[in-house]
Amino acid sequence: MNSATTHYLECIGCLTRFTPAQNYSCPKCGDLLQIGYDYESLRDKVHAAVVKMGALSVWRYKDILPVSPRNAVTLGEGGTGLPRSRRMAEQLGLDEVYFKNEGQNPTASFKDRGMTVAVTRAIQTGAKTVLCASTGNTSASMAAYAARAGLKATVLVPRGKIAAGKLLQAIVHGARIEQVSGNFDQALEKARAMAATGKLYLANSLNPYRIEGQKTLAFEVWEQLGKVPDLVIVPVGNAGNISAIWKGFWELKKLKVTNSLPRMIGVQAAGAAPIARAYNRGERNVVPWSHPETKATAIRIGAPASWKKALTAVRNSNGAMLTVSDSEILRYQRLLANHEGIFAEPASAASAAGLAKAAKHRLLSSREVVVCVITGHGLKDPEGSRKLLA
């Protein structure tokens, strides 16, 4: 298939539909946009794609992606491992736990799934420069894919609040780095203003094309397990990833590939947990936190752009939104390394810490099939991992 799959943009709030354009929010109500398809017409193609032999990858699912696979900007993303837990699962009294290890992507984080689609879309719209605000992983990924595509890259980072390993990646891939006073939320606000001029292509997760790449994690998990898991646990910062994964499983059911959906559990660091607070108080809206603080720098976000999508995913799946302390995160970062052979950055270990908390509070049964998403490799954040050497 050489042309982009027919799709439309839809506001998640007022549900107004728009033809594809370089929009990031609804001009009517201001909510974020998501991408939809004529699922009935895609059903046979997607069924054929997921039953054929061949390696797993993001572009394996080209028939349910909104960009043309011709001249895709790819570094071989996707196809990450799903090892089954042995020691940690036994310790928690659980039968079947898996770790989706997204640190195996080209720039060592899950961001590559979305960036291959977002940067391919940027090329197809004629963009010359891509832009993002970042706590680290987005900047590293965007810079690499921009380099691959021959595009310029501009990265806004919060001054003094980005892991050195991630910043180094962005620099060596040729991105122009601009440090912003304040935290990630201020950097994203500035990036959105810069993109509003129409001269820069914004690659943050509020870009619905990036979400489409990230949803392929759900497709892979389904193929690797041969079924939909009962529970998927995801670290939550800006909340794009949990939203994307839920969309992927929802589409599998919409396409009648499967009849079931997983429960989604989001995990936030206790010092940066505006979505968890709103969820646990039963509130409809998320109130931003002005000064989020956590050692898990990748999820140190006080005003998550995709909060509404994340709450929808958790509530519609009968899931939960949990918080874990920095000490719990570091404990399970060590256990992942020592017991499972997985070196995860602190933010990634939040999913394992969340699993332990969910088991403790009996939010799952011992026989349920659980997938914990490990979002990035530990070498991305050596400072945050320094306590493992103590």
Commentary on this structure:
Helix content is about 35%, strand content about 15%. The protein has helices spanning about 40-50, 85-90, 110-125, 135-150, 165-170, 185-195, 210-215, 215-225, 240-255, 275-280, 305-315, 325-340, 345-360, and strands spanning about 5-10, 15-20, 35, 95-100, 130-135, 150-160, 175-180, 200, 230-235, 265-270, 320-325, 370-375. The protein has 13 helices and twelve strands. The longest helix has 15 residues, at about 240-255. The strands form three sheets. The protein has a five-stranded parallel β-sheet with strand order 4-12-9-10-11, sandwiched between helices. Strands 7-6-5-8 form a four-stranded parallel β-sheet, sandwiched between helices. A three-stranded antiparallel β-sheet has the order 2-1-3. The protein is globular, with a radius of gyration of 19 Å. The protein has about 400 residues and is α/β, with parallel strands linked by helices. The protein has three domains: about 5-65; about 85-110 and about 210-390, Rossmann fold (3-Layer(aba) Sandwich); about 110-210, Rossmann fold, CATH 3.40.50. Helix 5 (about 165-170) links the parallel strand 6 and strand 7 (about 175-180).
Concise overview:
This protein has 390 residues and is an alpha/beta fold. It has 13 helices and 12 strands. It has helices at residues 39-51, 87-92, 111-124, 137-149, 164-172, 184-195, 208-214, 216-225, 240-254, 274-280, 307-316, 326-340, 346-360; strands at 7-11, 17-18, 33-37, 96-101, 129-133, 152-158, 176-180, 201-202, 231-235, 263-269, 320-324, 369-374.
